[in-house]
Amino acid sequence: MSLKLIGVFGGTFNPIHYGHIKLAQAWKSFASLSKVLFIPSGLAPHKNIVLENKHRLEMLNLALKPYAGFLTDDREIKKYENDLQASYTIETLKRLTQEKEENQALCFLMGSDAFLKLESWHLWNELFNYCHILIVERRESPIHSDQLTPDLKKEWNKRLTQKIEDIETSAYGLIMVKQFEYTDVSSSQIRNAIHLHKNLIQLVPEVIADYININQLYR
């Protein structure tokens, strides 16, 4: 039985940019994802969030509005605002698993840089019990097995597939890597551009550039 695939895309989105959007578009098209949930972190264990939650959420909503099936999910922000606890991907995936239908499977989207650091994530090896991991790989720096630690390499060798049919017929536990043409942008690059008073139009949707300027963000 072919499962309906749901994309899960976590991050600080500080701010949302074309790199995020193009990565999600590429996987949504290739894997026929029924939807993609963009889940901004409340308090990210790995990063210092420098922007108020309300602004990150509003920019996500503005940026995703033109894209069918792209949805903002604010559960991690609400969790932080309620109990001031850090957000962990494993906890979010557990909750999403409880909420999804039996004929659905979760696919966590990430870039290759994030995957190479996966062992620093809380309970990282349990992620595979709740989702597939779909990785966008840079053409100029593909993932090589010698870059992986022994434990991560073990999971890589056991779970890697090149067939989307494997993803569609398994509830969780697989890894797939693809190279797509997408905009290689980072949020830090955007913040630096703002400090240097550079034009943001090539980096973020116009509505986001306007929002940043109107609200004098990252100044």
Automatic annotation (TrEMBL):
Catalyzes the reversible adenylation of nicotinate mononucleotide (NaMN) to nicotinic acid adenine dinucleotide (NaAD). InterPro entries: Cyt_trans-like, NadD/NMNAT, Rossmann-like_a/b/a_fold. This is Probable nicotinate-nucleotide adenylyltransferase. Residues 8-192 form the Cytidyltransferase-like domain. Keywords: ATP-binding, NAD, Nucleotide-binding, Nucleotidyltransferase, Pyridine nucleotide biosynthesis, Transferase. One of its GO terms (molecular function) is nicotinate-nucleotide adenylyltransferase activity. One of its GO terms (biological process) is NAD+ biosynthetic process. Pathway: Cofactor biosynthesis; NAD(+) biosynthesis; deamido-NAD(+) from nicotinate D-ribonucleotide: step 1/1. It comes from the Bacteria. Belongs to the NadD family. Pfam families: CTP_transf_like. Its EC number is 2.7.7.18. It catalyses: nicotinate beta-D-ribonucleotide + ATP + H(+) = deamido-NAD(+) + diphosphate.
